[in-house]
């Protein structure tokens, strides 16, 4: 499955602002029509044939809108339009959030790390609990191998 971090980011933003605002907040890096076509149809698709990738002059405005770095925008464009994935096991989510964490003070970064670790542990614990409950209910429903023949 191909990742589409640029398209995903645009879709997330389009849930909270309209295409005019996206064009404005990206310093007019792309028109409102381009943003609409991208969100509604995706890269290389659209009613007029295709949504072309942004040119290099648009990167700073898009980075501003996405709240990330120009380098990350380049990587997102490479993934969406050309299928080039970074040689890393790091998810698109981590790559997207990385530049934001870099802007934090050391104290805020420590706090964010603690929060993420706590939320991650809670999720792991609840997944483990669900697995145990599921296994327990399966054991209750399944006949014991020694008594299965007694019913015949």
Structure, described:
With 152 residues, this protein is mostly helical. It has two domains: 5-102, no CATH class; 106-141. It has helices at residues 5-14, 19-25, 32-41, 59-66, 70-82, 92-102, 106-141, 145-148. Helix 2 (19-25) packs across helix 3 (32-41) and helix 4 (59-66) packs across helix 5. The longest helix is centred in the C-terminal third of the chain and has 36 residues, at 106-141. It is globular, with a radius of gyration of 23 Å. It starts with a helix and ends with a helix. 21% of the residues are buried. The model has no long low-confidence stretch (mean pLDDT 83).
Oligomer: single chain
**Domain tally:** 2
Rg is 23 Å
Task: Give the percentage of residues in beta strands.
Answer: under 5%
In DSSP terms, counting alpha (H) and pi (I) runs of 4 or more, how many helices?
A: 8
- List low-pLDDT spans: none
Terminal residue distance: 49 Å
Which sequence of SSEs, written as H and E, runs from N to C?
Answer: HHHHHHHH
Fold topology:
Blueprint: H1 5-14, H2 19-25, H3 32-41, H4 59-66, H5 70-82, H6 92-102, H7 106-141, H8 145-148
Helix pairs in contact: 2-3, 4-5
């Amino acid at each position: 499955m191909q990742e589409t971090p640029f398209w995903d980011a645009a879709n997330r933003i389009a849930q909270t602002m309209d295409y005019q605002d996206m064009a404005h907040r990206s310093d007019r890096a792309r028109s409102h029509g381009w943003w609409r076509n991208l969100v509604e149809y995706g890269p290389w698709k659209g009613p007029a044939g295709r949504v072309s990738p942004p040119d290099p002059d648009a990167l700073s405005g898009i980075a501003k809108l996405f709240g990330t770095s120009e380098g990350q925008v380049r990587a997102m464009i490479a993934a969406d339009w050309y299928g080039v994935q970074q040689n890393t096991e790091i998810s698109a989510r981590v790559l997207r959030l990385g530049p934001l964490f870099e802007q934090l003070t050391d104290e805020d970064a420590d706090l964010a790390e603690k929060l993420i670790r706590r939320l991650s542990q809670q999720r792991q614990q609840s997944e483990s609990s669900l697995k145990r409950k599921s296994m327990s209910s399966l054991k209750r429903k399944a006949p014991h191998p020694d008594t299965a023949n007694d019913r015949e």
